[in-house]
Structures are given as structure tokens and as C-alpha cells.
Specification:
Strand order of the largest sheet: 1-2
Helix content: 40-55%
Largest sheet: 2 strands, antiparallel
Order of helices and strands: EEHHHH
Number of strands: 2
Strand content: under 5%
């Protein structure tokens, strides 16, 4: 949800939310920015944000960033593509004021 609150909300009252958790996509994006350097994705994060802010993300650049994130030879070969996808979701959620729903 594109609202800034410090921690995910958990409640059985959130019956329409799978898993009963509701989190902030603003906080998610912030945490993904912090995770980028340890995953070796700081350049990808910066390139993605600049290109997305300008609404100009050439398809070949997306492909290059994705291929780099999906490198099976990296120590974090599983975590990097997950980071990439969540980064795109969180960015879109905060920019366009939409929710991210994962079931």
C-alpha cells in the first residue's frame, strides 16, 4: 500500500488481505534501496530509478539490467531477481499510488 507506516500491520480483521498482513510499499522501496549494495545491485537500482523517474526506460536497458540481476553465477543468484521484481513493483506502487497484492 503506498502509505508510509513504520511496520506491517497484522490483524485477523484484515480478512480481504491474504495472510492478514498489510505493508507499506514506500517502506519496501526504502528497504530495497538499502539491500541493493549488499546484493551488488546498486548500479541497477540507480539506473532503474533514473530511467523510471524520466519515464524513459529503453527495452534494451531493461533487458540488460534484468540479465545482470538474473546471473546464475552470482552468490545471490536467487535473491537478485526477486529484488529486481519487487523493486519494479514497489516503485510502480509508490509512483502510481497502487497496491501490490501477492497471493
Amino acid at each position: 500500500m503506498p502509505v508510509d507506516f513504520p511496520a506491517p500491520l497484522e490483524s485477523k480483521l484484515l480478512t480481504r488481505v491474504p495472510g492478514y498482513f498489510l505493508g507499506s510499499s514506500i517502506r519496501l522501496l526504502q528497504e530495497l534501496r538499502e539491500l541493493a549494495p549488499p546484493l551488488g545491485l546498486q548500479d541497477a537500482a540507480l539506473s532503474l530509478e533514473v530511467a523510471l523517474d524520466e519515464s524513459k526506460l529503453p527495452e534494451d536497458e531493461i533487458e540488460s539490467l534484468a540479465n545482470d540481476a538474473w546471473s546464475r553465477e552470482h552468490t545471490f543468484a536467487i535473491e537478485r531477481p526477486v529484488w529486481f521484481i519487487y523493486f519494479l513493483f514497489a516503485y510502480a506502487s509508490t509512483r502510481y499510488k497502487t497496491i501490490i497484492m501477492i497471493e
